[in-house]
Amino acid sequence: MIIVVEDEEELSKLICQHLEDAGMQTQPYNRCAPALRFLQRNFANLLLLDVTLPDSTGFQLLQELKQQDIHIPTIFLTGNIMEADRVKGLELGGDDYITKPFSYAELVARIHAVLRRTEGQRDFNLTKNIRTVDEDFEFLGSTVHPDRLEVTFPNGATYKIGRKELGILGYLNTHRHAVITRKELIHAVWGIHADVRSRSLDQYIVKVRSAYAKNGISLDSFKTVHGIGYIFEPPKKT
What we know:
4-stranded antiparallel β-sheet; alpha/beta; Rossmann fold
């Protein structure tokens, strides 16, 4: 899905037509506000964003998306050839910048190039907070291996861990001795806009506790804080 935010109606129609002819699905908007509302609730592959819009600017929309932890590859479209604007767009996190008028063949090629580049970067992501390239970490005597999605226990056993369980362990590991709300943990692992219920989170935590219990490690230091969430207070090493 390509979100096209362009207030020139004819240009927007032409862009959408050429992208759809190239096999892409499009969703056009002529204002920032409805585009933001859509992206708050839905996934999209790329944002094609005009800089000057009636209700805001493309720069402001991209900043708002990032503040809400909505990360989407973005190509700016503009009739302004000033270098300062191009630099600003890229510094804000834009992936490319195309000046009007432009070739539709070039536009399609640029979109494909950005998607290839950004999809390659996302390949490392296991959850919102854990990547396959992250270093191993120690957790209550076990060693967690993000690159292999495995936990090695002191008894020599190896456990294949799911992505979400891995994300939970990773977040607990970096937030020791601090109360963690359920919402905070869900947002950290699934993302801020994930529709995940507390019951689903509980099921993943049960899997983690069970894996450790089967290998002789108690998770008593991972405690429930009634009505709030959790706290992980591992014993101090002697």
